[in-house]
Structure formats: C-alpha cells, structure tokens
Design goal:
By secondary structure, this protein is an alpha+beta fold. About 50% of the residues lie in helices and about 15% in strands. The protein is globular and about 30 Å long.
Length: about 80
Amino acid sequence: TQEIFMDATQNHYGTFDFISPMIFLGVDRYETQTGLFSTLKRLAAGRQYEDFLALTDNPDDVVQLIEQWPPEGYAG
C-alpha cells in the first residue's frame, strides 16, 4: 500500500516531470477488500493522472493499457 501511495504522490505532484500509468490487477483486492482504487480515483479527480488509473481482472487489459499509455509530461 505504501508503494501505491508513493507512486500516486509522484503523479499528483509531477515529481519527476511526468505522469506514469497506475494499473491495478485484481478488482476484489483493490476495490472490494480495500477500497484503494476508489480512494485513488477520488484523490486524482480533476488532476492530470486521473485518466491514467485503471482497475481490471484481465492481464491482457494490463498489457494493452501499458502500450496505450506511455508516460506523459506533467503539465502542472
């Protein structure tokens, strides 16, 4: 969990001048059990990285999203 919020913080503030996708594999784990994904979506609302968050149970979706979402320059 700590690493997730460390990455979210970097995206939130553009720490390294780019936004990186955050893709979660496991709806049960990251939404049903912990609510982590919905928490991140609320924190990201209106921010550049909001569109770089995804939650899925399908590993093929993860690969597709990584290919589709290269890191993007931070617009601040």
